[in-house]
């Protein structure tokens, strides 16, 4: 009987390719030759199992009841060659798809932010990297990035900068001229303002090619053109430039409020001291030694071996246009002097450096005196190079301090030190002497809670500044708003209760009802708030004045408006000069044919474009979603497809 039942188990059709069918079959339908596919029969234990069109139940039965034979029916994984692409990889992304647009925009950001040439998209390594990351993406030509992608990114960023400038209480400009490797003259303008959150922001507005002579009239026209393009009010505009004659004349022609760059002022005073015969000879001797170690590979190698316990710093050589490079050269020479002496006395160096000898004791002492005399100027330059904190308010205190330290008459000074200080003092004394310059700098310092007491001025000068301050302050408030009752200016408090009709009100109401409603003039309000402001403790020199104003804005609402108008002004044109070094990385010898329009766009984007630093968070989220999809990939095809669409939708929202 068992043999008869065994013969009735029919093998699975040949179209069923799974290995598990070797242990399962079907019964024939009673009285017919057709097989009954509603159930499968296990050939090992004759169990009858419900069949749903797949092998899941069959494999489960084998694993539970016949584990010794289950390994023989494991599904075989098809090995796909590593170089064989899937259908998904073969489909190219449409150029108008969101994915392709995002990749194109990210490449444009990479080119402009990292100062890469347009031709980077044609480089073999770059194309290989993108092919690995996204094989379906077709890289556009360099022409598309130069004529469409970068200009589009420029317009989007420009719109954001323009909106920020409109919200600013006041905008100050710095400008400076420079020349590219292609011998093309440019002038760069940067904008500076304080945000509602009391943060000092700097933006590069534009870089314009100048094809005419750098006269005051042409520079004035450029400034007016920038103000018109960015919708800046010229009557309230402040320009910060160096002390060049054409810049000073341009500010006068345009009737702009003008601040002379204090870093450039320090440079002029220091250069005058460096040109003294005794200092110039000393610099020549040090320059000869440092130049020798730069030229000779043998001497440089021996110097590294002789460093002993000294810091492993390289010797530097000064640049004629940068006075602080001369200070750095002297300072580094004094630091490395023991190693320099040991290296020059070695046999290898004496063979190739005949005639090169170190400084004698007198020269070393003179170098130490020169470095000590110039150190205050170096520290002042570092202070003025800050961009995150106000610097115009620091000019007056620093200028007064430098004049005091370079004043003659200190005991124990050598003739060389007196000569250097005299040269510096004479040059600094003739700067910022006009009434307009003094008013601008002193009001800025009084609005800085670190210097508001103006201790560097005499009492008569302080009283004069207070009068000028109240005058300008009252005039500003009268232009902005009419006189209003004092209660309106107070902070909002609880609602005033309704007046009850009492006998006292009936008898004295006409006399005392409106006593408190007497309006105060703008000058009176300015004096009262200024007095209250001066009574508060001064801020520490290590603190940020903008942080202080953020917390005190509601206490001094009128002064806060004026502080935003003055503290946004930079004390130097360093911001514009820093663009020069960036421009040198853009207009290189290999890219000297860049048009002025492209130079302007690339500099603007490199300085102003913001790239959010949330890549790690985004990648974690994407990996999480795709991990979920992998877990659900064993579901029915229609369910898996729905989950995939959902995952891609979430990805595009990141």
UniProtKB/TrEMBL annotation:
The keyword Transport does not apply. Keywords: DNA-binding, Metal-binding, Nucleus, Transcription, Transcription regulation, Zinc, Zinc-finger. It is found in: Nucleus. Pfam families: Dimer_Tnp_hAT, zf-BED. SMART domains: ZnF_BED (SM00614). It comes from the Eukaryota. One of its GO terms (cellular component) is nucleus. The keyword ATP-binding does not apply. Residues 15-73 form the BED-type domain. InterPro entries: HATC_C_dom, RNaseH-like_sf, Znf_BED, ZnF_BED_domain_contain, Znf_C2H2_sf. One of its GO terms (molecular function) is zinc ion binding. This is Zinc finger BED domain-containing protein 1-like.
